[in-house]
Write a structure and sequence with these properties.
The complex is a heterodimer of chains A (768) and B (289). Chain A is of the alpha+beta class. Chain A has 3 domains: 149 residues, Aldehyde oxidase/xanthine dehydrogenase, molybdopterin binding domain (Aldehyde Oxidoreductase, domain 4, 2-Layer Sandwich); 183 residues, Aldehyde oxidase/xanthine dehydrogenase, a/b hammerhead (Aldehyde Oxidoreductase, domain 3); 239 residues, Aldehyde oxidase/xanthine dehydrogenase, molybdopterin binding domain (Aldehyde Oxidoreductase, domain 4, 2-Layer Sandwich), CATH 3.30.365. Chain A is built from 18 helices and 28 strands. The longest helix of chain A is centred in the C-terminal third of the chain and has 28 residues. The termini of chain A are far apart. Chain B has 289 residues and is an alpha+beta fold. Chain B folds into 3 domains: 45 residues, 2-Layer Sandwich (Uridine Diphospho-n-acetylenolpyruvylglucosamine Reductase, domain 2); 114 residues, Uridine Diphospho-n-acetylenolpyruvylglucosamine Reductase, domain 3 (2-Layer Sandwich); 107 residues, CO dehydrogenase flavoprotein, C-terminal domain (Enolase-like, domain 1, 2-Layer Sandwich). A 5-stranded antiparallel sheet of chain B has the order 4-5-10-6-7. In chain B, strands 11, 12, 13, 14 and 15 form a 5-stranded antiparallel sheet that branches. In chain B, helix 9 runs antiparallel to helix 10 and helix 10 packs antiparallel against helix 11. The chains are: A alpha+beta (768), B alpha+beta (289). At the A-B interface, helix 3 and helix 18 of A face helix 11 of B.
């Protein structure tokens, strides 16, 4: 597509690239302050136990220990991220609810003393029976994780749109399948860390967070402080994927320890503690029923899910709603029923992980759809094309879809993967599978109730015009938003990317932005940045009009040069005009803010899943199975996305590769495992099997031409939605390769081997 | 995750190291590459009062060929040194390849062949191929030294015959009558994976007949083990796919794997069969690879 953009649409180098590749980038854990203390949180060794007593005297007596705190030293106010269920205390008061629940904290002169001090804190526990199997958490007689939640039900959802039973009764074919998803963990490379310090009544926290704003809001609320007295700064951050969206306890404990000692305190998790804190993907039981007509058109779908929430709510209410809300997105059908129980167990809490709530249900639905296609003898690609969502449609749960190139994504994936040829010719043991995905481009509503805009931005042009600084509350967690937003600012101003500077994610300096979650920043932060840039440009053109004695509407500005549209050759540089503006009118500033329109229906939970725009994508993968061992070799992946206008192609494909990497891990390799006492068996990177570069297959990532009418320059999301097809794609490719389906994640080599063995034994038994 | 306190010693010679170990007895732990010891100390599985580091003993860091004896490899030889050794690559590429595939580059730079042996875990990648090649080891102490076949060194899960005060000095691979050898490891990802099962074999082939074979299994029993029943079955037989498959089944039958988070006993037993068959075929067809 040809357009006149000079800065967006180009793979400019990352603005943080040199710092990161030279090691100059400082992450929270790298920062040091004079007199800084080290803080650690003591956690529970039991999955469920009553706290009988806590004796901190021996720890306090250890030289080098500056403070020891327990629940008695902190506010009792419960917190959480989802206001519907605030159920966490900074430290446990009467009982612990999982192995890793927070009991006390220490601040010491060095890290070593922290570990010694923690060993000296004597906590007497009375062990209680624990709920470890979420499938039975609601059974009669099970212990209660929280006394106030009967049958351990944390969240219950029952939604119906249209008339499912009537539609199923009329269907040509009705099928039900059950799938089980596993618990995975985001595993960001950078461990969670925070440094807290006080100046009088003002609290400053450096934190590895995806949302300085939510941190600021919740910390102010917890300590009864005005938000203006809480400053959150996000230094460079090494990945979050949803796991760093909410306060972790490190910040609360650190703030109290810093207050106690009058010194900066750094609190942090090690790798095992990160796994214990968790907030990763929920394990989930998923029963799916659909009814289709003779051609495979879906008439109705029914989803009946149970989620393992772990011990606290975290973001899990949203995860639970998302699980159902996004199911009717890539395929059109009118009748839809969604039932969900999110239950408490005595395991670490689950929350938001890339693709929030959607990937596992998508895995179940896509696997199920292939089973339906097989029943009817329809090609998996054809059944998807038949049902593919069209643009300008509304889902049964009232989500307005504008741009949508679902069909084009499928067709292009079919073409570049050689689908038709492979479908005919691949031998047994080789298989090809397809799945689709979709995701919100930012949530339609904030996490807590507020009428504040979702994003805002300032641009300051420096006095001599040789640089411009973008001030944004948006959060670069590695995905490249600082780069993209500088490209957008330069484009809107008619300036050069190379002269952009950025100050981001500091609640005292940068304007409000809700942060890096729900795949929102390119669209929402970008909308605010575009507005700010346009305001700069308008003022520049007015000043240039005076300087050139031409009407402002005859002028435009691109790449730092202001020119007359009617008289070629009449130009003046951005720098000259900016300087003149500063001399005559004062600072040249631009401001922008973005608030989404009112979205969605009025039923209970209607807000979750609303978004101003939705991405779509199709993914094809080819696998080869070693029939004797079940080992899976990924031959190739073909990824095609409708993500609207692309601002930076290289960063976009980086997001697709990263999402695929995580999705592949969740499909076959990753699972958090527990023993019968609720302790994690693989809270380390040897046995929690993240893939390595050696495991990555050849990937072809493409986009289809698409413009989202509501987005700045037509953008939509890519970062999270591109995770959604992968689990289902693997399930279907493996099914195609062996003719037998594994119904639970991860689709390990051993499960594949076992499925083949059982199939062979059944065939032999049938012969005999 | 923090190191308990300990006293640190870095002797300048093998004799000094032996003296220190004799003096400190079971209060001391030997530190070679540190990839096992430091990890165990950090997770609280090991808390020695003294660490005796061998880092200054360059005499234990060499690979050389001695006429009449074979290839002698110092115990401190790192996995990457083994991998890049021209001498080993030319004679028995199977050993460099086993060292290369055992772990990530960082671990291969730190970890040593001696540590991989003395640690005694059944999933260690080097003992199987070394045993397949008939390697022997030399243990030294202030009381003298003893030499034994490597396969006699292990006698249970993480249990070896090493006595307090003894150090593994070097490993000797005798000049071979074998015509081929290889180590096949089944891991759950392409790099940085522990062996779910590993199978090392060596073969002596003449005129389409398998005159002799050794089959050594990793992660298939509480300790590294030879599948002697399968070896006996193969000896002197004419090579065929059916023969190798049957040998695999026999090796699987002899193996005594357990359930773990990396795989069930049943799955592991199956893998022993498959890998034995494949490793034999590879060593027969391709030599020392």
């Amino acid at each position: 597509m040809s357009d006149n953009h000079k800065v967006i649409g180009r793979s400019v180098p990352r603005i943080d690239g040199p710092d990161k590749v030279t090691g100059a980038a400082k992450y929270t854990g790298d920062l040091k302050f004079p007199n800084m203390l080290y803080g650690k949180i003591l956690t529970s060794p039991y999955a469920h136990a009553r706290i009988v007593s806590i004796d901190t005297s021996a720890a306090e007596a250890l030289p080098g220990v500056k403070a020891v705190i327990t629940h008695k030293d902190v506010p009792e106010l419960k917190y959480g991220l989802s206001p519907a269920r605030w159920d966490e205390n900074i430290f446990c008061i009467d009982k612990v609810r999982f192995v890793g629940d927070k009991v006390a904290a220490v601040a010491c002169v060095d890290e070593e003393t922290c570990y010694k001090a923690m060993k000296l804190i004597k906590v007497e526990y009375e062990e209680l029976p624990a709920v470890l199997d979420f499938r039975h958490a609601m059974d009669e007689g099970q212990p209660l994780v929280h006394e106030e939640y009967a049958r351990n039900i944390n969240t219950e959802i029952h939604q119906e749109f249209g008339d499912v039973e009537k539609a199923l009764a009329k269907a040509h074919h009705v099928r039900t399948d059950v799938f089980v998803g596993q618990r995975t963990y985001q595993t960001p490379i950078e461990p969670h860390s925070s440094i807290s310090m006080w100046e009088g009544d003002k609290l400053t926290i450096y934190a590895s967070t995806q949302s300085p704003h939510y941190f600021q809001y919740y910390i102010a609320r917890e300590f009864g402080m005005p938000m203006g007295d809480v400053r959150i700064i996000k230094p460079y951050l090494g990945g979050g994927f949803g796991g760093k969206l909410e306060p972790t306890g490190l910040e609360f404990a650190g703030a109290v320890l810093a207050k106690r000692t009058g010194r900066p305190v750094r609190t942090f998790y090690d790798r095992a503690e990160m796994f214990a804190h968790n907030r990763g993907r929920h394990a989930q039981y998923m029963e799916i029923t659909t009814g289709v007509d003779k051609e495979g058109k879906i008439l109705a779908a029914k989803a009946n899910f149970i989620m393992d929430g772990g011990a606290y709510t975290s973001l899990g209410i949203a995860s639970a709603y998302y699980a159902g809300a996004l199911l009717p997105m890539t395929y059109e059908f009118d009748n839809y029923k969604f039932d969900m129980f999110r239950v408490y167990t005595n395991l670490p809490a689950c929350g938001a992980q890339r693709g929030h709530g959607a990937p596992q249900p998508k895995y179940a639905f896509e696997s199920h759809l292939d089973n339906v296609a097989a029943d009817l003898g329809i090609d998996p690609m054809d059944i998807r094309l038949k049902n593919a969502r069209r643009p300008d449609t509304v889902t049964p749960n009232d989500f307005q879809v504008n741009s949508c190139k679902m069909k084009e994504c499928l067709e292009r994936a079919r073409e570049i993967s050689g689908w038709d040829e492979k479908k005919k010719n691949l031998p047994h043991g080789r298989g090809i599978g397809v799945a689709t995905g979709s995701f919100v481009t930012g949530a339609g509503y904030p996490i807590y109730r507020t009428d504040l805009p979702h994003a805002a931005a300032f641009i300051k042009v420096h006095e001599d015009g040789t640089a411009a600084t973008l001030y944004t509350g948006s959060v670069d967690i590695g995905q490249g938003s600082d780069t993209i937003l500088c490209q957008m600012a330069a484009e809107a101003m008619g300036y050069r990317y190379e002269q952009m500077k950025i100050v981001a994610a500091d609640t005292e300096i940068t304007p409000l932005d809700f942060g890096a979650y729900a795949s929102r920043q390119t669209y929402m932060s970008g909308a605010a940045v575009k507005q700010a840039g346009e305001e700069v440009k308008k003022q520049l053109l007015e000043m240039a009009a005076t300087m050139l004695s031409l009407p402002a509407d005859d002028l435009d500005c691109a790449e730092g040069l202001i020119f007359s549209k009617s008289r070629p050759g009449k130009t003046v540089t951005f720098e000259e005009v900016a300087r003149k503006h500063f001399v005559l009118k004062g600072p040249l500033l631009g401001r922008g803010a973005y608030t989404p329109p009112r979205l969605g229906g009025t039923f209970k939970g209607a807000a979750v899943g609303t978004s101003p725009a939705y991405s779509f994508g199709a993914q094809v993968g080819e696998v080869s199975i070693d029939k004797e061992t079940g080992e899976i070799t990924v031959v190739g992946i073909w990824d095609v996305h409708d993500c609207g206008k692309v601002i930076n192609p290289r960063l976009l494909h980086g997001q697709v590769h990263g999402a695929l990497y995580m999705g592949m891990g969740e499909s076959v390799w990753e699972e958090v495992l527990f023993d019968d006492k609720g302790r994690i068996k693989n809270a380390e990177l040897a046995n929690y099997r993240l893939l390595t570069a050696m495991d990555m297959p050849p990937i072809q990532s493409e986009v289809v031409d698409s413009i989202e009418p509501t987005g700045p320059w037509g953008v939509k999301e890519i970062g999270e939605g591109s995770t959604n097809p992968t689990l289902g794609m693997f399930s279907n490719a493996i099914f195609d390769a062996m003719g037998v389906r594994v119904n639970s994640l991860p689709l390990t080599y051993e499960k594949v081997w076992r499925a083949l063995k059982e199939k062979r034994e059944q065939e032999e038994a049938a012969k005999a | 995750m923090y190191m308990p306190d300990f006293d640190y010693h870095a002797p300048q010679s093998l004799a000094e190291a032996c003296g220190l170990l004799a003096e400190l007895g079971n209060k001391a732990t030997v530190l070679a590459g540190g990839t096992d010891v430091l990890h165990k100390m950090k997770v609280g599985k090991l808390a020695p009062e003294h660490l005796v580091s061998l880092k200054n003993l360059d005499e234990l860091r060499q690979i050389r060929h001695e006429a009449g004896r074979g290839i002698v490899m110092g115990a401190l030889t790192s996995h990457n040194t083994i991998y890049t050794s021209k001498l080993l690559q030319e004679r028995y590429l199977s050993l460099p390849m086993a060292a290369h595939t055992m772990a990530s580059n960082q671990i291969c730079n730190m970890g040593t062949v001696g540590g991989n042996i003395v640690n005694g875990v059944p999933s260690a990648d080097l003992p199987p191929i070394l045993i397949a090649l008939g390697a022997s080891i030399r243990l030294v102490s202030t009381k003298g030294e003893r030499t034994m076949p490597l396969e006699d060194f292990f006698h249970g899960a993480a249990e070896t015959v090493i006595a307090p005060g003894e150090l593994l000095a070097d490993i000797t691979i005798p000049d071979q009558a074998t015509t081929g050898s290889t180590y096949m490891k089944f891991g759950l990802r392409r790099s940085g994976a522990l062996a779910v099962v590993g199978v090392a074999v060596s073969v002596r082939v003449a005129g389409g007949v398998l005159e002799d074979a050794r089959i050594v299994l990793a992660s298939a029993a509480p300790t590294v083990m030879r599948a002697k029943g399968a070896e006996d079955f193969l000896r002197g037989k004419k090579i065929s796919d059916e023969l190798l498959a049957e040998a695999g089944e026999k090796a699987a039958g002899e193996s005594r794997p357990r359930d773990s988070i990396r795989g069930s006993a049943e799955y592991r037993r199956n893998l022993v069969g498959v890998l034995t068959k494949r490793a034999l075929r590879k060593a027969i067809d391709e030599g020392h690879v």
